UniProtKB/TrEMBL annotation:
This is CRP-like cAMP-binding protein. It comes from Flavobacterium aquaticum. InterPro entries: cNMP-bd_dom, cNMP-bd_dom_sf, RmlC-like_jellyroll. PROSITE patterns: CNMP_BINDING_3. Signal peptide: none annotated. It comes from the Bacteria.
Amino acid sequence: MYEALKQFISSRGVLEAPALDAICSRFDLVAVHRNEILLSYDQIANYYYFVNKGAVRVFTITDDGQEISRYFAFEDTFVTALPSFIDQKPAEEYLQAIEKSELLRISRDDFYNLVASEPVFARIYTEILELGFIMAQKRIYGFQGYDALSKVKWTLKNQPKLLVRVSNKMAASFLGISPSTLSRLKAKL
């Protein structure tokens, strides 16, 4: 149950087995169904999830009812509504399992206790923040001026699982193009 998490943590620093077991003991196993909502728009994010198996997306809904996907997390990745997790205000976005998933969940209190007490976990948190920032910047600034084909090529290079495991509708909302355009472009590649 904890093997992927142990491997993830160990790849970021050396830890003795008891310390690694102590970190993992703070996580609870959560099995969720496809399309299950883990966090709603008006809720506060009190958990961070590590994806053991499956996939989770972070999305919002516009005033006219259109879903806009912001992030997809696959195996060996952490995911939450980070702004809400940090500032404890309503998420203003949703977390949804888009596949039947096995997640390891840690409470906010336990998460920050580990950040304060385990240097390896503090490095993981810093890495999560840095990679999230970098990916957001690349996506925001990289997509400015990109045509649809360039956006799809960027996604194939930077997030290859996305176009294979996510529906065209969800992937298109992430890319800011129509599902039919995405289908046409995927057929060309």
